[in-house]
Design a protein that fits this description.
62% of the residues lie in helices and 11% in strands. It is built from 7 helices and 5 strands, in the order E-H-E-E-E-E-H-H-H-H-H-H. A 5-stranded mixed beta sheet has the order 1-5-4-3-2, covered by helices on one side. Helix 3 packs parallel to helix 6. The longest helix is centred in the last third of the chain and has 67 residues.
Amino acid sequence: MEKILLVSEIDHIKNYIDKYSMDHIINGQIDKFESHARFNLLSFDWHDIDAPQEFPSQIIIHFSEKNIFFICEDERSLKKVHKLFKNDDSIEKMIYNFFAELIKEDTNYLEALEEEITETEDDLLTSSKKECAKEIIAYRRELLQLKKYYEQLNRIFEGLVQNENNLISEDSLRYFNILDSRIDRLFSNVLNIRDYVTQVREAYQAQIDIEQNNLMRVFTVITSIFLPLTLIVGWYGMNLQMPEFSWKYGYAFVIGLSLLISAICLLIFKRKKWF
């Protein structure tokens, strides 16, 4: 018997699963993989790569030698299971086909995501820094969700390939091993992309630091130029009878001296390539 239903409809299959499974499904206490004498119980939070902004939706699979039930948290996951599920001549092939279809496009999605991150890295020097920061945060969140997602699938397939209750035939086990290896590669790809995003974030922070250093250099140059001019102002601002006060060229002399000092400072800074 095969059936796809919502958690709220679980009473429809109460005659086919034991009370332990019923209680754990209703109360949300299922481990990611549970192997029992006559059935296996799987649970994972499905991450929709077509709508990564959506919250993960739980999918529960209960299967034995004769029955398989897909129990979905909401309508979105229900539609997904209906789309992927293919009726076959054996329970194990149904499970294999479901998970094979579930992760079929994930490799292409991760490659496209990596290309987007590369474009973001290239735009660091031209785009608004605020926009780049938002994109990096979004990438980190999505990759965290994908990491959790593939960790769950890894745990499920580790239990399936161990096949403690022999619900999967030896011929089919090799196909499950292939899927297990594929999920391992997807998980490794996610970890590699997370490291790449970390490098992009560090490059972004380095760019911000460079701009701040350039800004501080400008302020330092301006301060250095006006420091001797401030000294001149303070010197001639003293309430003393200086000889220059009675000199008819005194005012022009102070102006010329100030311009000369500013020019000398700019020349020194230019030669030292401070700006």
